[in-house]
Amino acid sequence: MLEVLESDRLFFKPLSLAHLGEQYLSWLNNPIVYKYLETGGGQTIEMLRSYLTDVEQRNILFWAIHLKQTDEHIGNIKIDPVNFRHGFGEYGILMGEPRHWGKGFAKEASLRIIDYCFNVQNLRKITLGVVAKNEAAVCLYKSLKFQIEGVYKKHGLYEGEYLDILRMALFNPKLN
Q1: Least crowded by CB within 10 Å, which of 24, 34, 92, 170?
Q2: What is the pTM of this model?
Q3: CA pair distance 110, 77, nearest whole angstrom
Q4: Architecture of the domain defined by 5-171
Q5: What is the pLDDT of residue 59?
């Protein structure tokens, strides 16, 4: 069972059917939020229910990000899939509530989950893929010390345009 984690301003609760609701669904259908995500809108409550049911049944590192002050669910963060044999996992984050953007929550959440993955799960490397044009995300990942390992040229179709995908990685400083 995945444990509840916390940071200064946030709680990280295992993502589950308890998070099913119109607020979460609104993120998946908001073009500002899904602009660089794979979901691409058009989600229904039943699609979200099915997704959350699948998440509950799998043993993955996937948390809902909640504000400590109000317990509001503002996003999700995961490391999935994890390859324990080779010691790496794939990072993903969704900050769903635009009114909370620019307040440092994504960085705070990322630092806490990276710390957990490096110091509790003993991963040696965390990887991610990000649309190169997604400047806010690229800036966040660089501030977290992720390094670019490669570029997939014109790899993903976003708003009718094929865009480059950056492959980035962060190594566990205690193991490398």
Answers
A1: 92
A2: 0.95
A3: 8
A4: 3-Layer(aba) Sandwich (3.40)
A5: 86
